[in-house]
Design a protein that fits this description.
Blueprint: E1 2-13, E2 16-28, E3 33-37, H1 44-51, E4 59-64, E5 67-68, H2 74-84, E6 85-89, H3 100-110, H4 115-128, H5 144-157, E7 162-166, H6 174-189, E8 193-197, H7 201-204, E9 209-214, E10 217-223
Parallel strand pairs: 3-8, 3-9, 6-7, 7-8
Antiparallel strand pairs: 1-2, 1-4, 4-5, 9-10
Helix pairs in contact: 3-4, 3-5, 4-5, 5-6
Length: 233
């Protein structure tokens, strides 16, 4: 699904070069649920953004579902993102003046999905995250956990091959975090490949594979038996 070889990435800071990723080799197979751990500044978001085609690598190769991701123009990059990737962010990134269902529908609108199918699919995914009753509410009427569930429904609605989540529980209390992880575990058990960036060890324990970054180097990669979030909510 994802195959990264000898990846290097630096940022230019004025006259200085800041190396952020220094020779990453990382593969993810279909159906995996992987956490990327590491302290702040270790390069987690940079790696996830490269996987998400939101940023470009300097050196190395990246294959996504067998296709090499390289020098894509913005239009093709957007097509790849729509087709392959769903994103979940710490801050939810919902549109405040649109209802839950309209937030879920919006990416489908841009993909040219008909109105009827948009509504059906959006409701289906809102149901999946337990929010069917909240479909016509605005984000400010929802709790943080509910907002993140809307964001998960939005990410799932285009049926991406991979779900990428950058600190999805970073803005949530512990119990709500586990509720969100329960949903992500359910979606993974249904076959969706998921990559989660987190600096919270208890969240990482709820995935099936822990990868650790330190100063731009992958220092460990372990398969684990995941803690079940549903036992903690
Ligand atoms: P993490 O997500 O692990 O906290 P990041 O990948 O966000 O780490 O950042 C790694 C390093 O790269 C940090 O030192 C950060 O300041 C720097 N960095 C990230 N994005 C940029 C950017 N767009 N321009 C310059 N420096 C950046
Ligand atoms: Mg980050």
């Amino acid at each position: 699904m994802i195959e990264i070889k000898d990846l290097y990435k630096s940022y230019q800071m004025g006259k200085n070069v800041l190396p952020v990723l220094k020779g990453i080799n990382f593969s993810v197979q279909k159906g995996e649920m992987v956490s990327i751990m590491g302290s702040s500044g270790s390069g987690k978001s940079t790696l996830l953004n490269i996987i998400g085609i939101l940023d470009e690598l300097d050196q190395g190769t990246y294959h996504l579902d067998g296709l090499e991701v390289k020098n894509l123009n913005e239009k093709i990059a957007a097509q790849y993102r729509n087709k392959f990737l769903g994103f979940i962010f710490q801050s939810f990134n919902l549109i405040n003046y649109k209802t839950a269902i309209d937030n879920v529908s919006l990416p489908l609108y841009y993909q040219g999905v008909s109105r009827k199918e948009r509504e059906e699919r959006s409701l289906y995914y809102l149901e999946k995250v337990g929010l069917a009753k909240w479909a016509h509410h605005l984000p400010n009427e929802l709790s943080g956990g509910q907002k993140q569930r809307v964001a998960i429904a939005r990410a799932l609605a285009s049926d991406p091959k991979v779900l990428l989540a950058d600190e999805p529980t970073g803005a949530l209390d512990t119990k709500t975090s586990y509720e969100v992880m329960e949903i992500l575990q359910k979606i993974n058990n249904e076959g969706k490949t998921i990559i989660i960036v987190t600096h919270e060890p208890d969240i990482a324990q709820m995935t099936k594979r822990n990868v650790e970054l330190r100063d731009g180097i992958m220092i460990s990669d372990k398969r684990i038996e995941p803690v079940l979030a549903k036992d903690y909510v």
